[in-house]
Write a structure and sequence with these properties.
alpha+beta, coiled coil, single chain, Immunoglobulin-like, 11 helices, TPR repeat, four-stranded mixed beta sheet, Serine Threonine Protein Phosphatase 5, Tetratricopeptide repeat, Dynein axonemal assembly factor 4
Length: 424
């Protein structure tokens, strides 16, 4: 049962109300405060403060400050007037219930509108970013086309210059061939003169003929080599398929010390988490990067459970289970929250799921299995199913026979079962 906070002090002006609420040692956060036009609620388990205000207020501009063991509210009135009291007097239960439900409904509608506005703004930002990106890509494409056009013009000029050089080379070869024909006529005349002078100077004529023949051979050999260089062009390359073989991964450790199985399991879990995140991308895209980590969500749920915020802890564990449904500690911790919230059937389901995942039974998970059996047995006993609860307590005793607390609880359950049997 909640403990109602009755002690508070307030004062007012024509336009505002100033309310001071003591916390009695409890620790409050902005999430514990709910305020609407005519309804104010502060829920700090196990303490609770609730007020149906005398007149409507401007909940948008009103503020609440937490400090020095108090919560200070500054509530701005919608209409300037002096109130007779802080809350409505002589209001029946039906009217109070209607005002309470109406305030919660309006708060939900307002939150929904803010979410829609945020979604629309985000879509507009995406549209603007897309247009800007398209504009940049268009400018880049135009720049590349201009570069291509300049390169094309440059290549065309070089090709034209090469063609002109080829024409000049052909003209030069034709002139060279005409010169060779003149050189062939001159040796005939010289041979005649050699025959006439053979008797006089034979050696001189022979040397002259050798020199002239070498000159003619030199010219013909150079032309022949040029023709060969022009005709012998390389053949085109043959097409082929290149096959790439990747080297297998080598682990430097020995097989008995290898952690290949653990690495493969970790990679599998990461792939499964990414698959779940991608499948629920529309719902999880607004989350921060750390909020997509199941371990971070588990630690957050543990902190909320320690502070007494069991509903917040359940929400954190729910999101963690959606990201990775193979961690038994998530179900085990969520079962503890359901026990605190009296959701006994859900506590039994989560404890059973944790026991399914805690297989095979090894010394490292003994503590977790004991907790799962005790929590499921507690839920059974609170549902007055003492026989099933006793079975779980006995299973926990088999795992940890030295635990005196579990033994005492099991003995109490046996007495309850005997008492019910005797009464029947």
């Amino acid at each position: 049962m909640p403990v109602w906070l009755r002690e508070h002090s307030w004062r007012q002006t024509l336009t505002a109300v100033y309310l001071s609420l003591p916390l009695r040692g409890a620790r409050a956060t902005p999430a514990n405060i709910f305020c609407s036009e005519q309804y104010l609620k502060v829920s700090i388990p196990p303490f609770l403060f609730e007020a149906i205000l005398y007149a409507p207020i401007d909940d948008t501009n009103s503020t609440a400050k937490i400090g020095n063991g108090n919560i200070f509210f500054t509530l701005y009135k919608k209409e300037p007037a002096m109130w007779d009291s802080l809350t409505l007097a002589n209001a029946d239960k039906q009217k109070l219930q209607y005002l309470r439900e109406n305030a919660v409904l309006k708060a939900h509608e307002k939150a929904k509108e803010e979410t829609e506005a945020k979604k629309i703004t985000k879509q507009e930002h995406k549209k603007y970013a897309l247009e800007a990106t398209m504009k940049l890509e268009e400018e880049e494409r135009k720049r590349i086309e201009d570069l291509k056009e300049k390169e094309r013009q440059k290549v065309a000029k070089e090709l034209e210059l090469w063609k002109n050089q080829q024409k000049d080379g052909i003209k030069y070869k034709s002139i060279q061939k005409k010169g060779e024909s003149h050189q062939e006529i001159e040796p005939l005349k010289e041979r005649k003169s050699e025959k006439m002078n053979k008797t006089r100077i034979p050696n001189e004529g022979a040397s002259k003929s050798r020199l002239k023949s070498t000159k003619g051979c030199h010219g013909s050999c150079s032309i022949f080599s040029q023709n060969l260089e022009e005709e012998q062009l390389p053949a085109p390359r043959a097409a082929a398929t290149i096959k790439v073989n990747f080297t297998p991964r080598v682990f430097p450790t020995a097989l008995r010390e290898s952690r290949v199985a653990e690495e493969e399991e970790w990679l599998h879990k990461q792939a499964e988490a990414r698959r779940i995140i991608n499948s629920d991308l529309s719902e999880l895209e607004d989350l921060k990067e750390e909020e997509k980590n199941p371990d971070w969500l588990k630690d957050k749920g543990n902190k909320m459970f320690a502070m007494g915020d069991y509903l917040g802890a359940v929400n954190a564990y729910n999101l963690a289970v959606r990201l990775n449904n193979k961690l038994p500690l998530l179900y085990l911790n969520r079962a503890a929250c359901h026990l605190k919230l009296r959701n006994l059937h859900k506590a039994i389901e989560d404890s059973s799921k944790a026991l399914e995942l805690l297989t095979p039974p090894v010394p490292d998970n003994e503590n977790a299995r004991v907790k799962a059996h005790v929590r499921r047995g507690t839920a059974f006993c609170q549902l007055e199913l003492y026989t099933e609860g006793l079975q779980d307590y006995e299973a926990a005793l088999k795992i940890d026979p030295r635990n005196k607390n579990i033994e005492k609880d099991a003995e109490k359950i046996r007495h309850l079962i005997q008492g019910t049997m005797q009464s029947s």
